[in-house]
Design brief:
single chain, alpha/beta, Rossmann fold, 2 domains, 8-stranded mixed sheet, 6-stranded parallel sheet, 15 helices, 16% strand
Protein backbone atom coordinates (compact mmCIF):
# COMPACT_ATOMS: atom_id res chain seq x y z
CA UNK A 1 0.00 0.00 0.00
CA UNK A 2 1.47 3.41 -0.96
CA UNK A 3 2.28 5.82 1.86
CA UNK A 4 -0.34 8.54 2.41
CA UNK A 5 0.40 11.97 0.96
CA UNK A 6 1.68 14.29 3.71
CA UNK A 7 -0.72 16.98 4.91
CA UNK A 8 0.05 20.66 4.28
CA UNK A 9 -1.38 23.39 6.51
CA UNK A 10 -2.00 26.49 4.36
CA UNK A 11 -2.09 29.82 6.17
CA UNK A 12 -3.85 32.80 4.52
CA UNK A 13 -4.63 36.32 5.60
CA UNK A 14 -8.20 36.12 4.24
CA UNK A 15 -9.47 33.11 2.30
CA UNK A 16 -11.40 32.81 0.11
CA UNK A 17 -11.24 36.38 -1.19
CA UNK A 18 -12.80 37.40 -4.51
CA UNK A 19 -9.85 39.58 -5.53
CA UNK A 20 -7.33 36.77 -4.93
CA UNK A 21 -8.42 34.23 -7.53
CA UNK A 22 -4.78 33.20 -8.03
CA UNK A 23 -4.75 31.63 -4.56
CA UNK A 24 -8.07 29.92 -5.15
CA UNK A 25 -6.77 28.40 -8.38
CA UNK A 26 -3.63 27.23 -6.58
CA UNK A 27 -5.70 25.40 -3.98
CA UNK A 28 -8.00 23.89 -6.63
CA UNK A 29 -5.04 22.58 -8.64
CA UNK A 30 -3.32 21.07 -5.57
CA UNK A 31 -6.59 19.56 -4.32
CA UNK A 32 -7.18 17.91 -7.70
CA UNK A 33 -3.73 16.36 -7.44
CA UNK A 34 -4.88 14.70 -4.22
CA UNK A 35 -2.73 16.81 -1.91
CA UNK A 36 -4.28 16.81 1.60
CA UNK A 37 -4.75 20.43 2.69
CA UNK A 38 -5.78 22.07 5.94
CA UNK A 39 -6.78 25.70 5.35
CA UNK A 40 -6.54 28.50 7.92
CA UNK A 41 -7.68 32.10 7.42
CA UNK A 42 -6.13 34.46 9.97
CA UNK A 43 -8.35 37.50 9.38
CA UNK A 44 -11.51 37.20 7.25
CA UNK A 45 -13.03 34.57 5.03
CA UNK A 46 -13.74 31.13 6.44
CA UNK A 47 -16.54 28.67 5.70
CA UNK A 48 -15.79 26.19 2.95
CA UNK A 49 -14.07 26.34 -0.41
CA UNK A 50 -14.73 23.66 -3.03
CA UNK A 51 -15.72 21.28 -0.26
CA UNK A 52 -12.65 22.03 1.88
CA UNK A 53 -13.28 23.55 5.33
CA UNK A 54 -11.58 26.90 5.90
CA UNK A 55 -10.86 27.52 9.59
CA UNK A 56 -11.27 31.21 10.39
CA UNK A 57 -9.19 32.37 13.34
CA UNK A 58 -11.54 33.77 16.02
CA UNK A 59 -9.83 37.00 17.05
CA UNK A 60 -11.40 36.94 20.51
CA UNK A 61 -8.89 34.20 21.32
CA UNK A 62 -6.18 36.87 21.34
CA UNK A 63 -7.54 37.77 24.78
CA UNK A 64 -6.11 34.45 25.99
CA UNK A 65 -2.53 35.43 25.15
CA UNK A 66 -1.64 36.59 28.71
CA UNK A 67 -2.21 32.99 29.82
CA UNK A 68 -0.85 31.18 26.77
CA UNK A 69 2.24 33.27 26.07
CA UNK A 70 4.10 32.37 29.31
CA UNK A 71 3.62 28.67 28.60
CA UNK A 72 5.02 28.91 25.08
CA UNK A 73 7.80 31.28 26.18
CA UNK A 74 8.85 28.73 28.81
CA UNK A 75 9.10 26.09 26.09
CA UNK A 76 11.24 28.25 23.80
CA UNK A 77 12.67 31.24 25.70
CA UNK A 78 15.20 31.99 22.94
CA UNK A 79 12.43 32.56 20.42
CA UNK A 80 10.67 35.04 22.70
CA UNK A 81 13.95 36.81 23.44
CA UNK A 82 14.64 37.24 19.72
CA UNK A 83 11.19 38.70 19.12
CA UNK A 84 11.54 41.13 22.03
CA UNK A 85 14.94 42.30 20.79
CA UNK A 86 13.49 42.88 17.35
CA UNK A 87 10.54 44.83 18.71
CA UNK A 88 12.90 47.05 20.70
CA UNK A 89 15.43 47.64 17.95
CA UNK A 90 13.41 48.35 14.81
CA UNK A 91 10.36 50.24 13.69
CA UNK A 92 7.59 48.70 11.63
CA UNK A 93 7.22 50.26 8.16
CA UNK A 94 3.56 51.01 8.92
CA UNK A 95 0.97 50.44 11.63
CA UNK A 96 -0.86 48.07 9.31
CA UNK A 97 2.24 45.93 8.86
CA UNK A 98 2.87 46.03 12.63
CA UNK A 99 -0.58 44.63 13.36
CA UNK A 100 -0.32 42.08 10.55
CA UNK A 101 2.79 40.68 12.19
CA UNK A 102 1.20 40.77 15.63
CA UNK A 103 -1.80 38.87 14.25
CA UNK A 104 0.49 36.17 12.88
CA UNK A 105 2.42 35.96 16.15
CA UNK A 106 -0.81 35.70 18.14
CA UNK A 107 -2.12 32.92 15.91
CA UNK A 108 1.13 30.97 16.30
CA UNK A 109 1.14 31.21 20.09
CA UNK A 110 -2.52 30.23 20.39
CA UNK A 111 -2.34 27.35 17.92
CA UNK A 112 1.08 25.96 18.83
CA UNK A 113 -0.42 23.33 21.15
CA UNK A 114 -3.03 22.26 18.55
CA UNK A 115 -0.30 21.93 15.91
CA UNK A 116 1.76 19.80 18.30
CA UNK A 117 -1.20 17.49 18.91
CA UNK A 118 -2.04 17.09 15.21
CA UNK A 119 1.08 18.16 13.35
CA UNK A 120 1.04 18.86 9.62
CA UNK A 121 3.97 17.63 7.56
CA UNK A 122 4.54 21.19 6.35
CA UNK A 123 3.16 24.65 7.09
CA UNK A 124 2.87 26.91 4.05
CA UNK A 125 2.29 30.67 4.37
CA UNK A 126 0.45 32.06 1.35
CA UNK A 127 1.63 35.62 2.10
CA UNK A 128 4.80 37.12 3.55
CA UNK A 129 2.89 39.12 6.20
CA UNK A 130 0.80 37.59 8.98
CA UNK A 131 0.82 34.03 7.55
CA UNK A 132 4.63 33.97 7.25
CA UNK A 133 4.98 35.35 10.78
CA UNK A 134 2.73 32.54 12.05
CA UNK A 135 4.67 29.86 10.13
CA UNK A 136 8.03 31.23 11.29
CA UNK A 137 7.04 31.30 14.96
CA UNK A 138 5.44 27.85 14.77
CA UNK A 139 8.80 26.65 13.45
CA UNK A 140 10.61 28.38 16.32
CA UNK A 141 8.23 26.94 18.92
CA UNK A 142 7.41 23.50 17.54
CA UNK A 143 10.00 22.84 14.88
CA UNK A 144 7.44 22.50 12.07
CA UNK A 145 8.94 22.67 8.61
CA UNK A 146 7.52 25.56 6.66
CA UNK A 147 7.57 27.35 3.35
CA UNK A 148 6.25 30.75 2.37
CA UNK A 149 5.18 32.89 -0.55
CA UNK A 150 6.23 36.49 -1.12
CA UNK A 151 4.10 38.76 -3.30
CA UNK A 152 4.68 42.31 -4.52
CA UNK A 153 2.84 43.77 -1.51
CA UNK A 154 5.13 41.86 0.89
CA UNK A 155 8.23 42.98 -0.99
CA UNK A 156 7.53 46.63 -1.75
CA UNK A 157 4.82 48.22 0.41
CA UNK A 158 6.68 50.78 2.58
CA UNK A 159 9.94 49.06 1.68
CA UNK A 160 8.70 45.55 2.42
CA UNK A 161 7.41 43.59 5.37
CA UNK A 162 8.88 44.35 8.79
CA UNK A 163 10.54 40.95 9.44
CA UNK A 164 10.61 39.64 5.87
CA UNK A 165 14.20 38.42 5.66
CA UNK A 166 14.18 36.78 9.11
CA UNK A 167 10.93 35.00 8.30
CA UNK A 168 11.92 33.78 4.85
CA UNK A 169 15.57 32.84 5.33
CA UNK A 170 14.87 29.60 7.32
CA UNK A 171 11.98 28.53 5.07
CA UNK A 172 12.36 25.31 3.10
CA UNK A 173 11.60 27.37 0.03
CA UNK A 174 10.05 30.72 -0.89
CA UNK A 175 7.49 30.84 -3.67
CA UNK A 176 7.28 33.92 -5.85
CA UNK A 177 5.37 34.15 -9.11
CA UNK A 178 7.47 36.70 -11.02
CA UNK A 179 11.09 37.21 -11.95
CA UNK A 180 10.74 40.67 -10.43
CA UNK A 181 9.89 39.02 -7.12
CA UNK A 182 12.80 36.61 -7.43
CA UNK A 183 15.23 39.50 -7.97
CA UNK A 184 13.82 41.35 -4.97
CA UNK A 185 14.31 38.27 -2.77
CA UNK A 186 17.88 37.84 -4.02
CA UNK A 187 18.55 41.49 -3.19
CA UNK A 188 17.54 40.70 0.41
CA UNK A 189 20.21 38.05 0.59
CA UNK A 190 18.05 34.93 0.39
CA UNK A 191 19.59 31.68 -0.84
CA UNK A 192 18.93 31.45 -4.62
CA UNK A 193 18.42 27.68 -4.35
CA UNK A 194 15.49 28.26 -1.99
CA UNK A 195 13.64 30.70 -4.24
CA UNK A 196 11.05 29.07 -6.50
CA UNK A 197 9.71 31.32 -9.26
CA UNK A 198 6.54 29.47 -10.23
CA UNK A 199 3.81 31.41 -11.97
CA UNK A 200 0.14 31.21 -11.14
CA UNK A 201 -2.24 30.03 -13.81
CA UNK A 202 -5.65 29.41 -15.26
CA UNK A 203 -7.60 26.36 -14.15
CA UNK A 204 -8.94 26.01 -17.69
CA UNK A 205 -7.98 28.00 -20.77
CA UNK A 206 -10.98 29.73 -22.34
CA UNK A 207 -11.68 29.49 -26.07
CA UNK A 208 -10.00 32.36 -27.88
CA UNK A 209 -12.64 34.61 -29.39
CA UNK A 210 -12.41 35.94 -32.93
CA UNK A 211 -11.09 39.42 -33.58
CA UNK A 212 -14.04 41.78 -33.89
CA UNK A 213 -14.22 42.80 -37.56
CA UNK A 214 -15.31 46.40 -36.93
CA UNK A 215 -13.66 47.83 -33.81
CA UNK A 216 -15.38 51.20 -33.88
CA UNK A 217 -16.07 52.32 -31.27
CA UNK A 218 -13.12 50.57 -29.66
CA UNK A 219 -14.19 48.58 -26.59
CA UNK A 220 -11.77 49.12 -23.73
CA UNK A 221 -11.66 47.38 -20.38
CA UNK A 222 -9.71 47.75 -17.15
CA UNK A 223 -9.99 45.32 -14.22
CA UNK A 224 -8.38 46.74 -11.11
CA UNK A 225 -8.88 47.75 -7.52
CA UNK A 226 -9.43 51.50 -7.39
CA UNK A 227 -6.20 52.27 -5.55
CA UNK A 228 -3.18 54.42 -6.28
CA UNK A 229 -0.87 51.77 -7.71
CA UNK A 230 -3.31 51.11 -10.58
CA UNK A 231 -2.65 54.56 -12.06
CA UNK A 232 -6.30 55.10 -12.97
CA UNK A 233 -5.99 58.88 -12.98
CA UNK A 234 -3.50 58.44 -15.83
CA UNK A 235 -5.92 56.09 -17.55
CA UNK A 236 -8.69 58.68 -17.47
CA UNK A 237 -6.33 61.23 -19.01
CA UNK A 238 -5.52 58.72 -21.74
CA UNK A 239 -9.26 58.42 -22.41
CA UNK A 240 -9.49 62.21 -22.60
CA UNK A 241 -6.63 62.28 -25.11
CA UNK A 242 -8.30 59.50 -27.10
CA UNK A 243 -11.53 61.49 -27.23
CA UNK A 244 -9.69 64.66 -28.25
CA UNK A 245 -8.02 62.71 -31.09
CA UNK A 246 -11.42 61.68 -32.42
CA UNK A 247 -11.01 57.94 -31.77
CA UNK A 248 -14.44 56.58 -30.78
CA UNK A 249 -14.36 54.29 -27.73
CA UNK A 250 -16.35 52.88 -24.83
CA UNK A 251 -14.54 51.94 -21.60
CA UNK A 252 -15.50 49.78 -18.63
CA UNK A 253 -13.51 50.08 -15.38
CA UNK A 254 -14.25 47.02 -13.27
CA UNK A 255 -13.39 47.08 -9.60
CA UNK A 256 -14.03 48.81 -6.32
CA UNK A 257 -11.84 50.78 -3.97
CA UNK A 258 -11.32 53.95 -1.94
CA UNK A 259 -10.60 56.14 -4.97
CA UNK A 260 -13.89 55.52 -6.77
CA UNK A 261 -15.59 58.84 -5.94
CA UNK A 262 -12.43 60.77 -6.78
CA UNK A 263 -12.02 58.96 -10.11
CA UNK A 264 -15.66 59.47 -11.06
CA UNK A 265 -15.26 63.21 -10.40
CA UNK A 266 -12.10 63.29 -12.52
CA UNK A 267 -13.90 61.52 -15.37
CA UNK A 268 -16.51 64.25 -15.27
CA UNK A 269 -13.91 67.01 -15.19
CA UNK A 270 -12.08 65.50 -18.16
CA UNK A 271 -15.29 65.17 -20.14
CA UNK A 272 -15.12 61.38 -20.53
CA UNK A 273 -17.91 60.37 -18.13
CA UNK A 274 -20.26 59.47 -21.05
CA UNK A 275 -17.67 57.04 -22.44
CA UNK A 276 -16.45 55.52 -19.15
CA UNK A 277 -18.53 53.18 -16.98
CA UNK A 278 -17.47 52.30 -13.44
CA UNK A 279 -19.07 48.91 -12.85
CA UNK A 280 -17.88 48.29 -9.31
CA UNK A 281 -16.76 44.83 -8.25
CA UNK A 282 -18.01 41.98 -10.41
CA UNK A 283 -17.84 38.23 -9.73
CA UNK A 284 -15.34 36.27 -11.80
CA UNK A 285 -17.86 34.90 -14.30
CA UNK A 286 -19.01 38.47 -15.03
CA UNK A 287 -15.41 39.53 -15.57
CA UNK A 288 -15.12 36.82 -18.22
CA UNK A 289 -18.28 38.21 -19.85
CA UNK A 290 -16.67 41.65 -19.89
CA UNK A 291 -13.54 40.20 -21.51
CA UNK A 292 -15.77 38.63 -24.17
CA UNK A 293 -17.11 42.13 -24.88
CA UNK A 294 -13.76 43.95 -24.92
CA UNK A 295 -11.27 44.58 -27.71
CA UNK A 296 -8.37 45.86 -25.55
CA UNK A 297 -7.40 45.58 -21.89
CA UNK A 298 -5.63 48.62 -20.47
CA UNK A 299 -3.35 48.36 -17.45
CA UNK A 300 -1.90 51.67 -16.24
CA UNK A 301 -0.03 50.44 -13.15
CA UNK A 302 2.45 52.72 -11.42
CA UNK A 303 4.65 52.57 -8.33
CA UNK A 304 2.56 54.04 -5.52
CA UNK A 305 3.92 56.57 -3.05
CA UNK A 306 4.21 53.78 -0.47
CA UNK A 307 6.39 51.77 -2.85
CA UNK A 308 3.65 49.22 -3.52
CA UNK A 309 3.21 48.01 -7.09
CA UNK A 310 1.70 45.14 -9.01
CA UNK A 311 3.41 41.89 -9.78
CA UNK A 312 1.75 40.34 -12.82
CA UNK A 313 -1.99 40.94 -12.36
CA UNK A 314 -3.94 37.79 -13.22
CA UNK A 315 -6.27 39.70 -15.50
CA UNK A 316 -3.45 40.32 -17.99
CA UNK A 317 -2.85 36.64 -18.86
CA UNK A 318 -6.61 36.05 -18.57
CA UNK A 319 -7.18 38.68 -21.26
CA UNK A 320 -4.33 37.30 -23.35
CA UNK A 321 -5.88 33.83 -23.16
CA UNK A 322 -9.32 35.09 -24.16
CA UNK A 323 -8.08 36.94 -27.23
CA UNK A 324 -8.24 40.47 -25.78
CA UNK A 325 -5.38 42.71 -26.83
CA UNK A 326 -3.29 44.14 -23.96
CA UNK A 327 -1.74 47.58 -23.64
CA UNK A 328 0.16 48.06 -20.38
CA UNK A 329 2.57 50.34 -18.59
CA UNK A 330 6.07 48.94 -17.92
CA UNK A 331 5.74 49.25 -14.14
CA UNK A 332 6.13 46.05 -12.13
CA UNK A 333 6.19 42.61 -13.78
CA UNK A 334 3.63 43.07 -16.55
CA UNK A 335 6.34 43.02 -19.22
CA UNK A 336 7.24 39.45 -18.22
CA UNK A 337 4.09 38.48 -20.12
CA UNK A 338 3.62 41.44 -22.47
CA UNK A 339 6.55 41.86 -24.82
CA UNK A 340 6.13 45.10 -26.72
CA UNK A 341 5.15 44.50 -30.32
CA UNK A 342 5.11 40.72 -29.83
CA UNK A 343 2.43 39.65 -27.33
CA UNK A 344 1.03 43.09 -26.60
CA UNK A 345 2.00 46.73 -26.32
CA UNK A 346 3.81 48.76 -23.66
CA UNK A 347 3.71 52.53 -23.10
CA UNK A 348 4.52 54.95 -20.28
CA UNK A 349 1.46 56.32 -18.53
CA UNK A 350 2.96 59.82 -18.75
CA UNK A 351 2.82 59.65 -22.56
CA UNK A 352 -0.91 59.56 -23.41
CA UNK A 353 -0.19 60.35 -27.05
CA UNK A 354 1.60 56.98 -27.35
CA UNK A 355 -1.46 55.19 -25.95
CA UNK A 356 -3.70 57.03 -28.38
CA UNK A 357 -1.46 56.06 -31.31
CA UNK A 358 -1.40 52.38 -30.37
CA UNK A 359 -5.12 52.21 -29.64
CA UNK A 360 -5.92 53.90 -32.93
CA UNK A 361 -3.76 51.35 -34.75
CA UNK A 362 -5.37 48.43 -32.90
CA UNK A 363 -8.77 49.67 -34.00
CA UNK A 364 -7.75 49.56 -37.68
CA UNK A 365 -4.86 47.14 -38.31
CA UNK A 366 -6.28 43.61 -38.36
CA UNK A 367 -3.03 41.85 -39.25
CA UNK A 368 -1.09 43.58 -36.48
CA UNK A 369 -3.81 42.88 -33.93
CA UNK A 370 -4.05 39.22 -34.93
CA UNK A 371 -0.29 38.75 -34.68
CA UNK A 372 -0.28 40.12 -31.12
CA UNK A 373 -3.25 37.97 -30.11
CA UNK A 374 -1.65 34.77 -31.43
CA UNK A 375 1.63 35.36 -29.59
CA UNK A 376 -0.24 36.31 -26.40
CA UNK A 377 -2.22 33.08 -26.39
CA UNK A 378 0.97 31.07 -26.97
CA UNK A 379 2.62 32.73 -23.94
CA UNK A 380 -0.34 31.83 -21.73
CA UNK A 381 -0.40 28.22 -22.92
CA UNK A 382 3.29 27.85 -22.13
CA UNK A 383 3.52 29.76 -18.84
CA UNK A 384 0.08 30.12 -17.24
CA UNK A 385 -1.41 26.65 -16.89
CA UNK A 386 -2.50 26.26 -13.24
CA UNK A 387 -2.15 22.47 -13.25
CA UNK A 388 1.32 22.44 -14.76
CA UNK A 389 2.45 25.15 -12.36
CA UNK A 390 0.79 23.39 -9.41
CA UNK A 391 2.78 20.29 -10.33
CA UNK A 392 5.99 22.35 -10.13
CA UNK A 393 4.87 23.75 -6.76
CA UNK A 394 4.06 20.24 -5.52
CA UNK A 395 7.59 19.17 -6.47
CA UNK A 396 8.95 21.89 -4.20
CA UNK A 397 6.63 20.78 -1.42
CA UNK A 398 7.83 17.20 -1.85
CA UNK A 399 11.46 18.30 -1.71
CA UNK A 400 10.71 20.26 1.47
CA UNK A 401 9.10 17.16 2.99
CA UNK A 402 12.02 14.85 2.18
CA UNK A 403 13.23 13.19 5.40
CA UNK A 404 16.90 14.03 4.78
CA UNK A 405 16.32 17.77 4.79
Amino acid sequence: MPAPTPLIAYLFTTFPLGTETFLQREIVALHRRGVPLRLYSLWGGGGTFRGLPVYRFPKWRLLLLPWVLPREAWRRPAALAELLRGLASRRAPSWLNFWENMLGAGFACLFARAFRRDPPALVHAAWGGAPATAAWILWRINGHRYSAAAHAYDLYEHGGDWWLREKLAPAAFVHTSTEMGRRALLARGLNPARIACIRRGLDQLPPRKALRALRTPLRLICVARLVGKKGLDHQLRIYAALKAAGVPFSAHIIGEGPLRAELERLAGQLGVAPEVTFTGHLPQHEVWNQLAWADVLLHTGVIAGSGDRDGLPNVIPEAMAAGVLVLTSPAAATTEAVTHGVSGLVAEVTAPADWVGWLDRLSRDDAFAERLRTAARAWVEEHFDAHRNAAALWERFQAALAPDR
